[in-house]
Write a structure and sequence with these properties.
This protein is α/β, with parallel strands linked by helices and 203 residues long. 36% of the residues lie in helices and 17% in strands.
């Protein structure tokens, strides 16, 4: 496992969590867009040991970490196994641990618009929204569903307009911002179905 990265008080860190099974150019694209649109100092890819919402476990963490580092090479992006090291399983737990370990650092949770639709299924989802600002990046076909989702309706008053997206990093939770960006349509499930990425990783 990798050591915890050092952060300075006052920095703003975007957190893109998930199984990354496998990581792909869509992840890279939204990461670069998030850095630019939300004015973040850095982004961490938080590779989860497993996704509680999925019936079957992902590929081994070390394989996914290696694949993520190959595809996401950017001086402001860190690929992290923080959840495995901290022993957290759910996003709300991870956020509590991060805020404890990195006092004075500002975190912003990043997600695709499809995850905003699914958010009420997450453990302690309202605590997540009320703990950190959330940056949502549109994916193909999900814009209307996301804007009409339960989470968007419940926290309608906490929304920051897309044209003011750089305010998000300094906003107090609850706060969320939905930005429309040119999106790539790769999906981990489609790539995983081919089995090719794991063959490539073993070469």
């Amino acid at each position: 496992m990798t050591p915890f990265p050092a952060l300075r008080r006052g920095q703003t860190i975007g957190l893109l969590g998930g199984s990354f099974d496998p990581p792909h150019q869509g992840h890279v694209h939204i990461t670069r867009e998030a850095l630019r649109r939300f004015g973040l100092d850095r982004v961490w890819w938080l590779l989860s040991p497993g996704n509680p919402l999925k019936a079957h476990g992902p590929a081994p963490l070390d394989e996914r970490m290696a694949a993520a580092r190959r595809i996401m090479q950017h001086p402001k992006v860190e690929v992290s196994d923080y959840e495995a090291r901290a022993g957290t399983r759910y996003t709300a737990e991870t956020l509590d641990a991060l805020r404890r370990d990195y006092r004075g650092v500002k975190f912003v949770w990043l997600m695709g618009a499809d995850n905003l639709v699914q958010l009420p299924q997450w453990q302690d989802w309202q605590r997540i929204v009320e703990t950190v600002p959330i940056g949502i990046l549109a994916r193909p076909g999900d814009r209307i569903r996301a804007r009409n989702s339960k989470a968007a309706r419940v926290y309608a008053g906490a929304r920051i307009r897309g044209r003011e997206s750089r305010r998000l990093a300094e906003a107090e939770a609850p706060a969320w911002c939905f930005v429309n960006v040119p999106m790539r349509d790769e999906s981990s499930s489609a790539i995983r179905a081919t089995g090719q990425w794991r063959n490539d990783a073993k070469r």
